[in-house]
Amino acid sequence: MKKRLQAVLFALALTSTSSILHAEGSIDAGKEKAALCFSCHGETGNSAVATFPKLAQQNTSYLEKQLQAYKDGTRKNAMMSAVVTHLSADDISDIAAYFSAQEITANPMPLEDEDEDNKKTVKELIAEGSDLYRNGDLEREVSACIACHGPFGEGNKPASFPSIKSQHADYLIQTLKDFKSGVRSNNPENMMHMIAKKMTDEEIKAVSYHISMKK
Length: 215
Known about the structure:
Layout: H1 2-13, H2 27-33, H3 38-41, H4 60-72, H5 78-84, H6 89-100, H7 122-135, H8 146-149, H9 169-181, H10 191-196, H11 201-213
């Protein structure tokens, strides 16, 4: 099982650019079309609400893939499905180009959990998350995040792996829990479910805190 997981990761990470050879969208046109996204994701793609993802500096291939997934129903969210239902392929490309061109903002340090006893501090969790991000835990088949998302959290555009640096920790935590439970499954070979289901809640929080601090 371990060898199969590693093989899938490397195969996907080395995906050829031929799968995304298409015309890039227009940033200027995308700004106008993206206006319907601003109320939740912010005008520059830096959402003010930590449960809404930042879209700034996201890889265009990933943004296009997710918008199309909402449109065809392979990713479920009533609000997003309603927003994208009338978007054309060109609209999706333009919106992706606009948000990708924006600069993502840094996050403040996560707050300590005052209501939890005998838990690790935020700094300890970030250190734990840093180790898990770089090295994973091969004995438990928890793959290192760096394999697909890069050393700086920049993702992999040819493989449509998302940039995750400076993403909201709350959004990352919920996303990993959704992959773990199977609520979300629109990823190659259901790879994220295979990884997240082996992670503890503490590990999910730790790696999310670490990623949220990457710049």
